[in-house]
Design brief:
By secondary structure, the chain is an alpha/beta fold. Helix content is 43%, strand content 22%.
Length: 305
C-alpha cells in the first residue's frame, strides 16, 4: 500500500470528511476519493462506507488509519535520526496557543528560538471557546492547551502530550473586600458571594462547580466574560469575585487582590499537544525543549514571588 494514500486515510479519520481532507492536502475532493478507492483495492477490503451525505471509516478503515499513524511515526523517526546526523534542527515550526498561555510562554520562547540558526517559529493564538484544542493538531505542529489534566480525547487520538507547567487558580477580590485580610479561602468562606464567571466548561468554571458541590448550593454568577482583563476590571470595581489564574493576573496593579483556594483542586495543567509523527521532527523537538525550559523557568520564578 502506498504511504501517501495511507496518509489520506489517516487525514479522513481525523478530519471527518473528504472535503476537509481535500482542503488540507491541496487536492480536489474527487482526487481524494479516487486515491482512497485505489487504497481500498490495494487493501482488498472496504475501508469506507456511506453515512448520510458523507462517508465514514469501516472497522477495517479505522484499524488501517491507526497503522498509517504508526507508519508516519516510523518515517518521521527515521527522518529525525538522519537529520540529527546531517545538521542542527532547521525549518519552520507552527505553534498555536490560548491567550494567557501565550502571554506567559511566548516572549521567552521566541527569544530562545531566535538564537537557533535556521529555525523559525510561527505563532498564533486561538479563540479559547474552541471545544477541544486537540482539533487543531492536524493544522499546527504544536498546540498549547489548558485542562485539568490529560483529557481522554487526547489519548483517543494518540497524541503526544508534553506537560509544561501547573498553574494555580485563585480567588480574585476587590481591594478592601471583607475576605481580603485572609491568606487563604475555603469554599465555605465564599457562600452568598456574587461571582463574575467565565464561559461554561472553562477551567475556571470547573473550579466554581467544585465550590458549588462542596457548599451544596449554587453560586450566584451575575456576569460571564471571555476575556480575563474584563473580569479583572469588573472585580476591581467591586461587582463581584472571580476565579483567575495566578501567574497572569495583575494582583494589586488594578485594584484587586488574589487569594489561594483550599478544599478543592484549584489548578490547570498547561500542555503541548502534537501529532506523534510531528513530535519526531528535529525542529519540533528543539522547540519543545525550549518550551519546557521556559515553562520550568517561569514556574520557579512565580513560585518564588
Amino acid at each position: 500500500m502506498d504511504v501517501r494514500r495511507l496518509e489520506l486515510l489517516r487525514e479522513l479519520a481525523e478530519r471527518g470528511s473528504i472535503t476537509a481532507v481535500a482542503r488540507a492536502t491541496s487536492r480536489t475532493p474527487s482526487a481524494v476519493s479516487q486515491q482512497l478507492k485505489v487504497l481500498e483495492r490495494e487493501a482488498g477490503i472496504p475501508l469506507t462506507e456511506r453515512s448520510g451525505r458523507g462517508i465514514i471509516l469501516t472497522g477495517a478503515g479505522v484499524a488501517l488509519a491507526q497503522t498509517a499513524t504508526d507508519v508516519a511515526v516510523a518515517l518521521e523517526r527515521a527522518e529525525a535520526l538522519w537529520e540529527d546526523f546531517k545538521q542542527a534542527p532547521r525549518g519552520s515550526v507552527t505553534l498555536t496557543t490560548f491567550p494567557t498561555g501565550g502571554q506567559m510562554l511566548l516572549p521567552g520562547l521566541l527569544t530562545a528560538v531566535a538564537a537557533v540558526p535556521g529555525l523559525v517559529l510561527h505563532c498564533t493564538d486561538q479563540d479559547p471557546l474552541l471545544p477541544d484544542f486537540a482539533d487543531l493538531t492536524p493544522d499546527f505542529d504544536i498546540v498549547l492547551a489548558d485542562a485539568p489534566g490529560v483529557l481522554p480525547s487526547w489519548r483517543d487520538r494518540g497524541l503526544t502530550v508534553v506537560p509544561l507547567m501547573r498553574e494555580p487558580l485563585d480567588v480574585a477580590l476587590p481591594e478592601g473586600h471583607r475576605l481580603s485580610a485572609r491568606t487563604t479561602l475555603s469554599p465555605g468562606d465564599l457562600v452568598n458571594e456574587s461571582w463574575i464567571g467565565v464561559q461554561l466548561g472553562f477551567p475556571y468554571d470547573r473550579i466554581l462547580r467544585q465550590i458549588e458541590s462542596v457548599n451544596g448550593s449554587p453560586a450566584n454568577v451575575t456576569q460571564r466574560f471571555l476575556d480575563n482583563g474584563i473580569v479583572e476590571s469588573v472585580v476591581a470595581a467591586g461587582h463581584g469575585i472571580a476565579i483567575l489564574p495566578r501567574f497572569t493576573t495583575r494582583d494589586h496593579e488594578n485594584g484587586l487582590v488574589t487569594r489561594p483556594l483550599t478544599g478543592v483542586r484549584a489548578f490547570r495543567q498547561i500542555s503541548a499537544l502534537m501529532r506523534p509523527d510531528r513530535a519526531e521532527r528535529p525542529s519540533v523537538r528543539r522547540v519543545i525543549t525550549a518550551l519546557r525550559a521556559e515553562a520550568s523557568r517561569l514556574q520557579e520564578l512565580y513560585e518564588s514571588l
